[in-house]
Amino acid sequence: SVKALLPAGSWGRQSIPVSGQWMIYMGPYPDDELYARKLAELRRFKGVAFDEVKRPANLAQGLSLGRFTNEKEAEERLSVLKQRGIRSAKLITLRPAGVVQYVRVTQATVRMQVALSGVKLPQGKAFTACRS
Hints:
By secondary structure, the chain is an alpha+beta fold. Helix content is about 30%, strand content about 30%. The chain is built from 4 helices and 6 strands. The protein has helices spanning about 1-5, 30-45, 70-85, 110-115, and strands at about 10-20, 20-25, 50-55, 60-70, 90-95, 100-105. A 4-stranded antiparallel beta sheet has the order 3-4-2-5, covered by helices on one side. The protein has a two-stranded antiparallel sheet with strand order 1-6. A hairpin with an 8-residue loop joins strand 3 and strand 4.
């Protein structure tokens, strides 16, 4: 526990909201022929921008018709695309909205830094020097 390693008042918690991210997505396509056919179909739609998706692996060989930080805007755009005849597009959540928690240690001494280097944090994270 950080409380046991650090003197009172030498650290504090900080919560930072993180916006979600949504994508209008088509795919993934199991073979190159179907993928090429979908590319050709999309090119026939005037004013529809799209990008090929290569990462993450579970979405590779798919197509993105837009990325959004507002779910409502993404849903509205998907509705417009469906009205134009792009029926297989769907909305997927790339990252849900949430809050990131930080523990900030002001003026960490060498002893504090050594002690914190051994602390196991979620998702393999570690204490690092602040950028600011």
